[in-house]
Amino acid sequence: QRTNHSQMASSAIVLLLVLLIPSAFTFSSKFVNDQLRLWFEPQDVTTTFGEAINLTLWIDGYSYTKNFSVQFSDSENAFVKIKPPICRFYEDEFQNNLTTFQAIGRRPGRFIVKASVEPERFVDDQRLFVRLKVALSQPLIIIALIIGWTYTACWSSGYYPQIYLNYKRQNVVGLSFDFLHINIIGHVSYAIFNSFMYWNSAIEQEYFKRHPYGLNPVIGNDVGFAVHACFATGFTILQCYVYENGGNSISKTAKAIIILYFHIIIGAACSVWFWSYHWLDFLYVLSYIKLSTTLVKYFPQAYMNYKRQSTEGFAIMNRLLDIAGGLFGILQMVINAWNFGQHKLRNSKYVFLF
Asked: Which residues span the membrane (predicted)?
């Protein structure tokens, strides 16, 4: 019975990877064109109130005109001062070139600093903007960054008390198999979402088309955290089939939930292969699966504790570290909200807070 359950979990994960790996080779490479291309890099810049910071404009390619100019939009002039507000480039000055502008935030907040090119013909200016964050205090930026690493450390280390407890007891009696198997589905979905968003240029370009002034929401830390969570949870599942489990197994309800998830994944993949959906939509489906697993995965363990009237075999430190990480995350949001003059949460922060 242990072997069957192990094969079921392994087959499910392999199926998910088989659906995705071939598609990785069908994605196109980064946008390449011989037209004139202008972009700001980095596009996410943080400064403090009244402090000047350089915005770097990169210029590459061939222009079909002898000269052109870059001018900043007036929409943010009340909050951000740009020097110079307009810059002209002449023939032979823009091949593999870069220049800098100076930005000064006049109030705390988050602003999109946009620029335009004249004349507009034959110019790729899709990334010709900067998301400028103006803070009240530089020390608070550092404190918020430290808090961010702290809650990441809490969440990442939360897997090891259970692993150590299983090893110490040489059994997994008291640990819910349902919790672990639903959890691994969520972590694998999250890891795939982060990996493709971070490394695949075609998906990134599609994201930029839908969010013209957005930046890739996934950073390297997100990928590392998700992959680490997959391995840690997978190792805990392996312990369940190596150590004495007291007859514990995956319940019919959990099996039904897992099967439902894979039907959703297969359906989403078929929508991409046979209809006009994009792989970005498929990744969104995986992100929703991750969110839903977070909603349901704790109930099996809570029910098992209630049924046994005991938490023996379940490492309470796991949940304490989860709670600590969540509290640090909320603290970081409060500090950033005050430091950047934002008193309302963005939609993405509601999901994080939840």
From this structure: 140-160, 172-193, 225-244, 256-276, 282-299, 320-340
